[in-house]
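Recall the central idea of this unit: under ordinary conditions, the amino acid sequence of a chain determines the structure it adopts. In this exercise we apply that idea directly, starting from the sequence alone.
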Amino acid sequence: MDSTALDLGEDNSLLLVDDDEAFLRRLAKAMEKRGFAVETAGSVAAGQAIATGRPPAYAVVDLRLEDGNGLDVVETLRARRPESRIVVLTGYGAIATAVAAVKIGATDYLAKPADATDVTNALLARTDTLPPPPENPMSADRVRWEHIQRVYELCDRNVSETARRLSMHRRTLQRILAKRSPR
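Accordingly, the structure predicted from this sequence is:
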């Protein structure tokens, strides 16, 4: 899909919930160019307030927010507007959370980094069709490297703690961290 406006039907309202302010602004701007009427929230509380007061036709919700779990916003929205199409976005992709998101009513689940085209395709996809595979998927080495980097950051860049959580020898982890990221 290109960045021109799409046929979204009568209700083109879209709620974006993410605590990464820069990402939220970029995605909001890109989705407005595609014809959505965007409203943003930076927390679970703000997302739930909008979902309760003005439940949108579409929503993109980050899974982990500073004040809680984005699935709480999904549940609120699903209760107020059952037909809404909801995509859960997360940097912490795991099968268990994907299953939980879909069970409580998410239409789709995307791992970050996802761009506006990925989000739009997920929001507008019909449930009876599978989405096309990504054009340039990350290599297995890159996925592994990204996961190690994320855990390293979550452990406040503590090599010993990261190695323990990854069940990896500390020296092995240090060698991986010293290398450039794979393509």
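The chain has two domains: 13-124, 140-178.
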